[in-house]
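2024-03-11 09:14:02 DEBUG pipeline.ingest accepted 1 chain
2024-03-11 09:14:02 DEBUG pipeline.ingest length=174
2024-03-11 09:14:03 DEBUG pipeline.predict start
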Amino acid sequence: MRPASPAISDTIAAIGLAIGGAMGLVGTFVESASLRETLWTIDGVALVVATALLTMKYQRLGNDCVAAGFLTFLAGESLLLAGNAAGLEASVPSYVGGISLWAAALIMVSAPKTFALWMRLTAVVAAVLFVVSVGLILWGTPLLPTSAPLPAAGYPFLVLTFIGWIWTLLKPDR
């Protein structure tokens, strides 16, 4: 008997996570503001679609904490998307709200043992780095979404978490 292939919604969610992770990471390192805003807009839309589908999937499975985590991520990504066209400096208020919700979402998705331990750990590391970034910004440190080491250090951990979620979505049922 052949292993079951992923549902179309799982495939679309995986594609959204892949596009979001790639475009978001690349957008962080480009110099052109117009190109960065374009890449981050594509990233944001892809992640909103992916996390909407993941919310529905985990709600149907009865995993309310994970479903609520993906819904919270969707809300955070929407805030980021809304501030994107304003430019780096003007987007900081929506950025702080967005990554605050990302951090909460990553903890909510990782609290239950739904995903492999390594994915849960990368999510927690990303969440901690985002919370520290939020704290620094709120206490007056002039950080932008592209600042290094923070908040930029959180992005690779976020993308590693996405890779884990993609792997979970696409692996054949055993």
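2024-03-11 09:14:41 DEBUG pipeline.report The CA atoms of residues 99 and 130 lie 6 Å apart.
2024-03-11 09:14:41 DEBUG pipeline.predict end
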